[in-house]
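**Backbone geometry record:**
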Amino acid sequence: MATATQVMQAAKRNMTDETKLNYDFRNPFVICGSTYIPICRGQ
């Protein structure tokens, strides 16, 4: 239990995204699991 608490505290201190995503937040999309590239609706 102590390890989980430590992980949660570290995550709250370092609230940054590991991978930057290039996407338009107004267009619905899903993320490709292997390349992390957004696939917009209709493509």
